[in-house]
Amino acid sequence: MKFNRIILMILDSVGIGEMPDAASFGDTGADTLGHIDEIRGLTVPNMEKLGLGMLRPFKTVAKKQINGAYAATMRECSPGKDTITGHWEFMGIINRQAFPEYPDGFPEEIMTVFTEKTGYGYLGNKPASGTVIIQELGDEHVRTKKPIVYTSGDSVFQIAADEDVIPLEELYRICEITRNEIMVGDHAVARIIARPFVKRETGYVRTENRRDFALEPPFPTALDLLKGAGIKVGAIGKIEDMFAKRGITHSIHSHNNAESCRDTLKLMEGELDTGFIFANLVDFDMLYGHRRNVQGYGDALEAFDKELEKFMNRYLRENDLLMLTADHGCDPSYHGTDHTRERVPLLIYSPGLKSKGILPERSCFTDIAATVLENFGIAHVLPGNSFLGELS
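Above: the chain sequence. Below: its structure as tokens.
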């Protein structure tokens, strides 16, 4: 069966158990969904209907599946566990070499150039939790007007600043300089991230004006091929940032899960009557995974499950295909604050499908790209194995 429209929603960081190579990433035993299920429990009746409970043993997620639903687990081929690696792989790019990381902070020669080219000094320059470092250095930042620089277990150069000290457009300018003139060549990290914050009575809090300045994909992705073939391509949330705005015809830069669901429905009901919609739901990762908040993560999953009911029962047409998956794990019960190297679930649904099933584990995220491109009849040389023919 071919579909007029495919909606791919990334539940950012919703992993389903460690990858075979998790030990090499320091992630032995990581299990985002499994540990939330064990510690807190989950009430997700709509994801149950799509077969989530069929993918592994759960305590509180039932084994069931409705007609029209297919489910599988997926492994990541690229040697990474960061957002851009996962998203690029969904669209057909396998990174054979991991992006550079800086577990001890950035070298002095990099920070000297940063100071010279941006016109600012800096504070921090170490791995840190973003919510912690702004409390630690926020007052000094306000006093000195120096941006706070930090990194994490991912390939990122993060720049935090109070919006009243360094206005947003200036912060974005600093990030663009860092992306285009400083973190290049051997130091080309996956993302430069603007992390604005403000002062409140309880301390410093991050705002939703974050922006990601990602590397440009090294060759055409499935998005580029779709757009080139005249297919409408919608991007929701930080998707446009992950692909340097390439291969996209319609974009809404949503800030949180609720907005991403709302804006996906807006495109579905509006200009994207056909084509491909690619959405990211960031809250699972940003607000709860990195902050190791099991209760909040579970709350967010249950809130999304209620939104999912709208898609399934009101907005999806007979010739629509919905796919839910994740880009990596971020086990909120695990040590540290970084992403975790995990398999991810793949939940598929269309009202037009009258059968159901559990598909074999996908060996690479690129199977998503292969499936989307086959559906729209686009020839390509990207890696991946389409599962379109298995949905029958």
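The longest helix spans residues 294-315.
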